[in-house]
Amino acid sequence: MKKTSPLSQYQGAFFIILAGSAFAGVNAFTPYVASTFSLNASWIALYQYFFALIVMLPWLLKSGIGKHVKTDFFWRHFWRVILAVIGVHFWIKALTVPIPIGQGLSLLMISPLFVCLGAVFYLGETISTKRSLALITGFIGALIILNPWSDSFSYVMFFPLIAAFFWACHTVMLKNITGKDSALTIVFYLYILTLPFNFILAITDNLTQFSTFMWIKPNNTGLWYLFLLGALTALGQWSLAKAYSAADATYIQPFDYFKLPINVLLGYIFFGWGIDGLFLIGASLIILATLYLTFGDKPKLLK
Fold first, then answer.
1. Which residue among 27, 142, 194, 223 has its CA within the 20 to 30 Å range from the CA of 163?
2. Is residue 165 part of a domain?
3. CA-to-CA distance for 134 and 105, rounded, in angstroms?
4. Domain limits for position 68
5. How many CA atoms lie within 13 A of 45 on its CB side?
6. Quick check: is 302 in a domain?
7. pLDDT tens-place string over residues 228-251
8. Within 13 Å of residue 156, how many CA atoms lie on the same side as its CB?
9. Cα–Cα distance measured from residue 137 to residue 244, given in angstroms and rounded to the nearest whole number
10. DSSP state letter for 110
């Protein structure tokens, strides 16, 4: 744990809340963009991350991106980005259905639970009985939010869970790279490698047609909304980097949960999506489980 001043801790908390707010804006605008401009998840992802790269490019160049291009772990970056892209597409697909933002985000928040499982199987960490109970509690919370016994249940409710799983796999691979490559190297390869993958998925309609390629260009208004999505994505990524450079992750993690009420509020304002008692119970169980996994007894590597 790094030593930080109170000011740095306040800055870390501010930037993690700013990141959550930026991503909440992305979550709120995505369903609107999809329905208004008739864009599917693949094309939204392509334009969103293209514009995010454009917005972040000055920052990357100013920091001397040339020295961050070099890496001994290119193929690890390659495979982690594939996992991240799959997660992105399932999440955007969930938003374009659309699934209520609060419910979708709550299910997405079980990603740390998948990370914990991945650390056991991939990194060789041991898991205590208490941490196992925390995992079970979190998954029970997800099941309560899914509410599969309801008549209104649809298979698309699994999309945030699938996104959480693939993002967790990405995070586990990232743990294996962090400390070996700089944060800017990690960000650089995320954005550079995301573009061709998103491009292929977009022109082939998610790998379903190869005989004729499609190209969809929204009107100028649609492009401005997509640019806004990209700018908010870039702001979120930049704020995350600032947050984790200012304060220790264990300090700022609780502030990350502010993104849930912000998303719920935006979902209500823009789409009239409310919440019920089952949602509150399920979300509370997920938050309690992830807090324990963050601050509870720490895992140990198998010898």
1. 223
2. yes
3. 19
4. 6-295
5. 29
6. no
7. 999 999 998 888 878 877 777 667
8. 14
9. 27
10. T
